[in-house]
Amino acid sequence: GFDPAKDMDRKLNFRGTHSGGNKGYLEELSSRPGSVTIRGILEQLRKTYCGTLAVEYMHIGDHNKCNWIRERIEQPRWLSYDTEKKLHIFERL
């Protein structure tokens, strides 16, 4: 079974390198065999999906449009933006 004390920091090895055509985390995880942990995945998912920003896109039927959004949301470069950059983006909204 799963033991959080042992398994959260164990390096994961994904079989194969294909993400099924999906962008974002699935693509990133398949390109980094042996360097990803469950703890790292959970931290990144929490930063992306448990904050104050929400984006609904799963209702979009076009796979390419979903991937375009997923690439920008699941690779959150915006988490490292300084206050000035964030204010600039906010003003443009």
Please tell me about this protein's structure.
The protein is an all-alpha fold and 93 residues long. It has helices spanning 4-7, 25-30, 38-49, 63-73, 83-92. It starts with a helix and ends with a helix. The chain is globular, with a radius of gyration of 16 Å.
Q: Give the averaged pLDDT, no decimals.
A: 79
Helix content: 40-55%
Contiguous low-pLDDT stretches (5 residues minimum) are none
Q: Taking Cα atoms only, what radius of gyration do you get, to the nearest Å?
A: 16 Å
What features would you highlight for this structure?
93 residues; 5 helices; globular; 0% strand; mainly alpha
Concise overview:
The chain is built from five helices and no strands. The model has no long low-confidence stretch (mean pLDDT 79). It has helices spanning 4-7, 25-30, 38-49, 63-73, 83-92.
Q: What is the secondary structure topology, with strand pairs?
A:
Blueprint: H1 4-7, H2 25-30, H3 38-49, H4 63-73, H5 83-92
